[in-house]
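seq as requested:
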Amino acid sequence: MIFIILCSIAAIGFFIERWLALKSARKHLEQLRTPLLDAIQESQFERALTLCDSHPCALSELAKCVIQHRNLKRDAIQEAVQDESKRQFAILNRFIPAIGIIASISPMLGLLGTVTGMIQVFSNLADEYAAGAHANPGMLAGGIWEALLTTAAGLCVAIPAYLLHRWLESKLDAILLELEAVTTQIVDLIAPPPSAKEGTP
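struct tokens:
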């Protein structure tokens, strides 16, 4: 039971930390997007870098990556952005998989507690029979009831943890989609695709 309690505390802690982190990432993304795109469109790269430094977030790091590689070809810029995107995803995704793991192992911990509890109950019952005592249905029922509590506790942790895990994943996916869209705009402004350079539709 102690491990299930620790899992519940860890899940709550991880969720609060990630919820605040993703909320902050969303806030900075919304605040930075428009002024950053305006600065880059006007080729005011120093102002863009200053904006990035004043709003530390995934978008600012991706934007700085593009700006710092602006003298390279488009393919090289995109490759650098992909590497930075992986790093930012790892930062934003921190602890979210841990909540999913807790949701997966909590029922198994509960089942393990139930099995070991049942083993103890029947072991005690066998000892009483060996000593010549009669069966005690009350003791048996009480032991089984206590053993089943761990399974219930595991499920009570696993179900909310699973829901919180999926909710955080949906929030993360929304942020990643917006980051990808804004980063693509920045790359297009600094290193337009060949069709845009040639003026073809």
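The chain has one domain: 1-192.
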